[in-house]
Amino acid sequence: MNYRHAFHAGNFADVFKHALLSVLLRHLKTKDKPFFVLDSHAGLGLYDLSDERSLRTGEWRDGIARLLARSDAPDALAPYLAAVRGFNEGEGLRWYPGSPRLIRNFLRGQDRLAAVEMHPEDARLLSDEFAGDPAVRIHTMDGYNALKSLLPPPERRGLVLVDPPFEEADEFAQLARGLKEAHRRWATGIYMLWYPIKNRDAVAAFRAEAASLAIPRTMAAELRLEADTPNRLIGCGIILVNPPWTFEAEAAAILDFLVKVLGRSAGASRRIEWLVPEEGATPRAARQ
Question: Catalytic amino acids?
């Protein structure tokens, strides 16, 4: 409960995570039927990059600021960049949307968001921001417990975002258990689980554990900004279950661009790999 995302808003990890999240949300909007989104570790709705905490670290300057300065972004990034620009009309770059605000930007009248935040102050601010919005409900509780209590929703379609702060030593194990339990309750949902890349062995073990769940159509996508360095945050990744059919190609275009724009050294790379393909399919990987 000590983690405060205001120090890190708009950094490379946010760019990676929110760009891919935007692709998934855009796909959910292509069908008329309503969808539900559960954001299990929501944080705040909107972050002020002129706030003292953001200025102290300046991480957004090597993240979202670099992307917005480019004119050669691939089409797959357009929904995400348009959303960020929409919060900054006439102000340059001051505001960065956290995941609940970004998700809300994609919702239609028939869609719903359940945003879960355990930090009491952040939960209060989040409730104030979305007060009176019938599409959004704020829950002050543990995000992993929300995977049990809020699933399955009435809607058959939707997305579960699990983006923990990684303060706990067993966070990877909690992620795997959470995915297993949530998918058992709601097998038709899309699941997106974010993780940092800091310890190569821990990441490899987590990927293996996710694969061992044997959930069909489980994919991993990763961005590394530099070559592996022990005990240094060099990238991040997601485990994704039930991605749309076109997601792999769109994610590849986005990650290729992020490697070019955000990479710190010649060791920057990306990887997209099927951990568990669709039943009857042959595993395949796309690496760079």
Answer: 163
